[in-house]
Each structure stands twice: as structure tokens, then as C-alpha cells.
Amino acid sequence: MRYFNYLTADEEKALFYLPPNSFHNHSHKDILAHSVGAALYMPATRRTFAEDIAFGKIEGLVSVVLDLEDAVGDNEVHAAEESLIGQMNQIAYWMEVGIVSAENLPLIFIRVRSVNQLNYVLERLEENVALLTGIVFPKFTVENGEDYFQVLENYNDEKSASAPTLYGLPILESASIIYKESRTFTLLAINEIITNFKELVLNIRIGATDFSSLFGLRRSPDRTIYDIAPIRDCVADIINIFGRMEASNVISGPVYEYFGVKGLLDEVMLDKENGLIGKTIIHPTHIKPVQTRYAITHEEYTDAVSILKNNHGDLGVMKSAYGNKMNEFKPHYNWAKRILLRSQVYGVLHEQQTFDGLLTGPNRAYV
């Protein structure tokens, strides 16, 4: 799988100084954590998800979350489980007979409802679990977190050597996290669990919709989640605990629940400014707009290369190659490492190119 594979070879050459690299669910954990990108949620009851995933019917799709939780009604749970198992088996069959290539599959995740359901799904999927990249853990708390990861650890200990690691993606969205009086204690306790199972944590996700519901709030389509004060403050604390460089976690931005793009793009840019990479999306039209914003500009790339190259030299600061800022080698070192890692997944744009060129091509505007 590869980002922006909808571009022609000529368009890619015109847009990219360094094109994106390919990846798959056997790739290194750091690459995979940044590759989740715009993760499209699909109800597991969707009758065509196997065809959509296997045959590239959704242009630009790179990661998909098959949802057994909020997108499925309580009376549909069994049907959703059967749909999930049946369609994953169908994808496996297409691969076995050579109709579908593993290299062209998006990263596939499943969001489960409970630890018990996780055990059930893993048991029913059998060897086809190897098609997955990870499991999304909703409403991740101190009480259930260790149980989720223990199941994952047991699976990884027992799987065949050729099967990829199955990762966990906890969603922080419970009342004990958003309520101020319990937040610090809860986040620190969750951080202990995350640290104990660090090798199995792909990224940490934020459930802003559940947070908002506890206050009867909902952002307007022309506003971002950062305009909702209680959510903004909680997101800041999540970043403070889990976003420190020594923790080396990737934190993804919360879902944007409107179909329009303007507010979404504003929010993605604010996500990036706060160190969040990746976003839960609920509509295919969001895939390209979100993904394009993670590409690295030529200016960012040249700054990052200069900072890493000169970090061990005699100089402490140098004017940037673009001549518009000072690069301080030690303070900007961690930022530069993140930029270069992201550049491997999303590529580096040519000097005169912008994000919008990635939406349909270098000389055409997105409509």
C-alpha cells in the first residue's frame, strides 16, 4: 500500500521531491503508527466492505476500521460479527487464489465492543487475523485496559512466526478522563498500562464525540474541536502525558462528524500544530483532504535535514535555507526527527507545490 496511489506517474513526478514509500502490515511499528492517516470507519454490517477494501473501490483508501461498536445497533451485534467473519474470509480466499494482492490491501483494523468480543473475533478469524494490522479498543479505561492488551499479548505470543504483529489502538473517551477532578490520576494510570505494553501500542486515539456528549456539546461545522473549551483542555492534558518525546507515542486527532471539508481541514491543521497525526473519518470524501495535509513541504524537509546534519557540530543556530527563520539544532532536533519519519510515509512536495495539488493533480483544483 502507498499513499497518493491515485496519482499518475507524471503527476507524482511533478508533485513530489521525494515520493511516499510503500508499506504493509509487516512494516516497522514506527512506520505503521504514522501510516494510519485518515482511518475510515465502516460498520461491520456493511455488505460490500470486502469488495470495497480488496478491489480499491474507495479511491485513496489506506486504512479502514471495521466497527462492531457504536456504528452497530445493540440488536445487530451478532449479524455484524457474522458479516465481519464472512467478509474477512472472502478477502482471504481472493488472496489465496491470486485475485487480490496483499500489497494492495489497506491497513485493516477492527473496533470491538469488549474484551469478550475480542476473544470471540480472534477465535473465529483463526489464521485470517494475519490480514489485520490492529484492534481498536473503545472507551479504554484503567479497569479494562490491561485485559485488552493481555488478550493481544497472548495472541502475539502464540501466532505463527510469519504472521504480522497485531497492535492495539486505545481510544481515550471516558468520563474519568474528561472530568477535571479525576483526569490526572486516570491519565497517569492509563499511561502505566500503555508503558507496560508499549511494543503493542500502535497509536492512541481521542474520542471527542463521547467527551462532548458528557456536557451536551457539539461543535458547529465551521468550528474545530479546539473551540470547545472542556475538550481542548482535555486534549492538551492527553498530549502532555502521552505526547512527550521519551514516550514516543503517536496520538491521532478526534473524529470530525460533518460531511463538509472546510472545518475538517482547519481542524487537521490544528491537530498537526499540536503534534497529532492521523484522524478518524466517517465519509470517503474526507480521505484525500486529510491525507494531503500530512505530506511534508519542501521547506519543512530542508529544515529537518539541516537540523539533524548540524546537531553535533560547533554551531547552535543557523538561518534556514529559505532565509525566513532560525533553526536551533538542539531545541528543534525532536521536531526534525518526526518530520523525516513522516516524510517516508507521505512524501516530500516539490518547492513550488502545495497540499491542494495532491487532491487531484498538480494543476487542478479540488472541487
UniProtKB/TrEMBL annotation:
Keywords for the protein's UniProt record, in alphabetical order: Lyase, Magnesium, Metal-binding
Any Gene Ontology biological process: oxaloacetate metabolic process
Cofactors (names): Mg(2+)
Protein name: Citrate lyase subunit beta
Pfam families with a match to the protein in the record: C-C_Bond_Lyase
List of residues binding Mg(2+): D210
InterPro entries for the chain: C-C_Bond_Lyase-like, Citrate_lyase_beta/mcl1/mcl2, Pyrv/PenolPyrv_kinase-like_dom, Pyrv_kinase-like_dom_sf
Example of a GO MF term: lyase activity
